[in-house]
Description:
Largest sheet: 2 strands, parallel
CATH topology: di-copper center containing domain from catechol oxidase
Number of helices: 10
Amino acid sequence: MVAYRSILASAxxxxxxxxxxxxxxxxxxxxxxxxxxxxxxRKEWRSLxxxxxxxxxxxxxxxxxxPSIATSIGGAINRFDDFQGVHATQTPNIHFxxxxxxxxxxxxxxxxxxxRNECNYTGAQPYWDWFIDIDSGLPMxxxxxxxxxxxxxxxxxxxxxxxxxxxxxxxxxxxxGCVPDGPFTVxxxxxxxxxxxxxxxxxxxxxxxxxxxxxxxxxxxxxVVTELNAKTNFKDFAYRMEGLPSFDYPNVHGGGHFxxxxxxxxxxxxxxxxxxxxxxLHHANVDRLWALWQEQDPSRILSVGGxxxxxxxxxxxxxxxxHINLAELGPSRPxxxxxxxxxxMMCYRYDQ
Length: 352
């Protein structure tokens, strides 16, 4: 612990003294010195070349043909399933808590490493900047990320939802059925395999999407990022990032999930949302907003706070020594190892 905290503390203090000369791999404007010399660069999806997009999608498909290692997830067939299954088992404890951002940063890092180390992917995990699409004024079906050739495929056909499936009575649904095009269809040998309620059982089925454009545009608002950047401590930042479980409260995290997944879509299922490959690009953008906020003030590298138990804001709080894990996908780690994207444990940055 001493070594990690020493490095993080040095990163927070060094720029206050004499700035070290930046390396070519580090952006020219960050306030925080890098602890790793060659961070891989996570880029926005549409900035990738078509070849780079294909390489990423092929690596994701490679995970779906690589046998599972998560023995605690009996329903997992392949490595892609492993991540969905671990998320599903821990969902009750990793949302609306102080370590929500840390846990998903850790999961993304493990997923990125699996792509690179097991599937010969040489790039970094891309992210999806929803604001580019929201601001474009284009209908969701025309957003580049949903392109059938260079993206993740589009919306499913419309399917009626029962009152039980739609307990909040959400309106504006446009899909709900199996994604009919793109690389992640049953015809292209992609299935969501883990049973929705019992991770010990396999239940292969199609990927579904249920676009809700009004939810996307209502929840994904620039004002949320303005509010996030105005927060001066992590506890307040994290609370605003995850927001409240309400469709009346602008929230970029929920807006991505439910704007795409809606009521019947895989991405709108809180337990099983990693069954939609777009999950990882969405959460990379959430992580990017945290990383950018951290770099505004180096003291934020060591800033943590928030409840250990969901919604228990007056109860026990996390600190840098609080541990989280990814079951078979990653050992128990203290939060201080997950505070900083450029070392010493992780080594990546965002393009902007």
